[in-house]
Design brief:
It contains eight helices and 21 strands. By secondary structure, it is an alpha/beta fold. The protein binds flavin-adenine dinucleotide.
Length: 339
């Protein structure tokens, strides 16, 4: 693991190895959760940015249901309620998935629990969900969430969190023993020790060739980089497609430099954006602005994600898993694992 980088000495330091000097360096450190200073969030919120985060959240939710089953008084105190913060893809996909878990799996396991005793509330500070998508997609998303009994609060800001309550700036207090944080990212904390002036969200600013202007032998790619799209003049979003294309470009550029060839500026190829809200409910916005919603978009989402898996074995496993889930309307939802 890299513990520090001395840009002036061109030296990387590791936890397990002796320091290494470099001719070229690429930062692809990714991003981490940003709690924006919300009181109680680092201690009590459940971020959802890694597999370990997802497993931790699932364990917590399962434990809450089991505890409420043993002691139903906990239900009135909000033990089964979940607040999800963030109306972007992470928050919406999480709220949709949790709603399927609640209404598809838990209603069968816990038939005595009424739907209003296990509420999922999505809180977004801005005026609408999915601001990066077109209005028809936003409208469809609201309907799809409502159909899954997800309550949406827009224009509401989370002020503080305790283990059992979520307080909004408007003064409303929500009874919820689980708060999922999908409200924002910042560049990996290592970048703060580099002595660079960072861009919004602690991301490293780069030039058209993805280099750090003050250290042109150093590149930054993916979520940790603030890459300006040459076409739109906007900073590109923290997406897998940006990470893959920028990583490939930095690698190619270094190879060209080493072999004395001319280098080219990075040009992002936007292949569209997609998100899934639940079973048979996805949204796709294609290059040029065309949109797809519902089952067709779900099939497109599945096809693209299958294609992105690294091996045919992974693809086969995913198809078997999806087919099983589709036929039985069950997933391995109640299986808990050690991490
Ligand atoms: C819940 C969720 C859903 C998403 N869904 C989509 C989607 O549908 N489509 C899409 O395009 N994008 C999606 N994204 C975004 C996408 O995952 C990221 O944009 C992409 O992974 C960024 O790639 P990266 O290589 O920059 O960073 P990462 O994938 O975060 O990789 C960084 C790597 O660096 C390692 N690292 C960090 N610090 C150190 C260190 N000090 N030393 C050594 N190694 C270190 C980390 O362990 C990690 O493996 C999603 C993200 C989340 C959180």
């Amino acid at each position: 693991m890299v513990t520090a980088v001395d840009l002036d000495a061109r030296e990387a330091h590791f936890r397990e190895l002796e320091p290494l000097t470099y001719d070229y360096l690429v930062f692809g450190l990714g991003a981490e959760v940003n709690f924006f200073g919300v009181d109680g969030a680092p201690e009590h919120a459940f971020p959802l940015y890694t597999l370990a985060d997802a497993v931790r959240l699932k364990e917590h939710v399962l434990q809450n249901w089991e505890a409420a089953d043993r002691n139903p008084d906990r239900i009135d105190d909000g033990a089964l309620n979940i607040v999800v913060v963030g109306g972007g893809p992470t928050g919406i996909e999480t709220a949709g998935a949790l709603a399927e878990l609640y209404h598809g799996v838990f209603t069968k396991d816990y038939p005595d629990v009424e739907p209003e005793q296990a509420r999922i509330t999505l809180v977004e500070a801005g005026p609408e969900l999915f601001p990066m998508f077109k209005p028809d997609i936003r409208e469809y998303t609201e309907e799809a969430l409502a159909k899954r009994s997800v309550e949406v609060l827009t224009g509401e800001v989370v002020e503080s969190i305790t283990p059992l309550r979520v307080r909004l700036k408007s003064g409303t207090e929500l009874k919820a023993h689980t708060l999922v944080w999908g409200a924002g990212l910042q560049g990996n904390q290592l970048v703060q020790s580099l002595g660079l002036g960072l861009e919004k969200g602690n991301r490293i600013g780069v030039d058209a060739e993805l280099r750090i202007p003050s250290h042109p032998e150093v590149y930054a790619v993916g979520d940790v980089a603030a890459i300006t799209d040459q076409k739109t003049d906007q900073v590109l979003p923290q997406l897998g497609s940006v990470a893959m294309q920028s990583g490939e470009h930095a690698g190619e550029t270094i190879a060209r430099k080493v072999s004395g060839k001319e280098t080219k500026p990075f040009k992002y190829r936007d292949k569209g954006t997609m998100a899934t809200i639940g079973r048979g409910a996805a949204v796709v916005q294609m290059l040029g602005g065309r949109t797809m919603k519902g089952k067709t978009a779900s099939v497109a989402w599945g096809t693209v994600h299958l294609a992105l898996l690294p091996t045919n074995e992974d693809r086969a496993k995913a198809v078997v898993d999806w087919a099983g889930a589709g036929l039985t309307h069950q997933r391995g939802a109640r299986i808990t694992v050690e991490t």
